[in-house]
C-alpha cells in the first residue's frame, strides 16, 4: 500500500513541476513576447503597413531572396520566436517554406548574433569552448556556421516550397476532380 502512495505522490509531483514550469513561462517569456509583438506592430504602424508590405514583397520577390535575406532579416531583427511573424507578409503557399528556413536559421545565427536566439546560446558556447581549448578562432567558426546556415536555409526553403506547391496542386486537383497548377 505504501508503494501505491509513493507512486501517487510522484505522479502528482510531476504535474506540480509542470505547473511551476508553466507559471515560469507565463511570468517571463509571455510578457516578453507580448511586448515584442506590440513593439513590432507599433513599428509597422509608424513606418506604414504599405511600406513594410512593399519591402517584404521586394525581399520575397524571387526564390533566392525569399529563403535567404528574408529569414535572415527576420531572425536578426526579431529573434526567435517572433521572427516567424514575418510570415504574415507572404502568400499562404510560401509560409511553410519560410517557417522551415527561419526555424533552421535559429542556430547558425547565434555565433555572430547571440541576441537572435539566446535560449540556444549554451550550444554555441559549448562548441566555442572546445574550439578555444584547441587554440582555434571562434570568429572563423561563427562565420563559417553562418554561411553554412544561409546555404542550408536556402536549400530547405526551396525544397519545402516545391513540396508545398506539389501538395497544393494534388489536393486541389482531387478537390476539383481535374488538373490544377498553383
Automatic annotation (TrEMBL):
<keyword id="KW-0472">Membrane</keyword>
<dbReference type="GO" id="GO:0009401">
    <property type="term" value="P:phosphoenolpyruvate-dependent sugar phosphotransferase system"/>
</dbReference>
<dbReference type="Pfam" id="PF03608">
    <property type="entry name" value="EII-GUT"/>
</dbReference>
<dbReference type="InterPro" id="IPR004699">
    <property type="entry name" value="PTS_IID_sorb"/>
</dbReference>
<feature type="transmembrane region" description="Helical">
    <location>
        <begin position="142"/>
        <end position="159"/>
    </location>
</feature>
<protein>
    <submittedName>
        <fullName>Eii-gut: pts system glucitol/sorbitol-specific iic component</fullName>
    </submittedName>
</protein>
<keyword id="KW-0812">Transmembrane</keyword>
<keyword id="KW-1133">Transmembrane helix</keyword>
<feature type="transmembrane region" description="Helical">
    <location>
        <begin position="69"/>
        <end position="90"/>
    </location>
</feature>
<feature type="transmembrane region" description="Helical">
    <location>
        <begin position="29"/>
        <end position="48"/>
    </location>
</feature>
<dbReference type="GO" id="GO:0016020">
    <property type="term" value="C:membrane"/>
</dbReference>
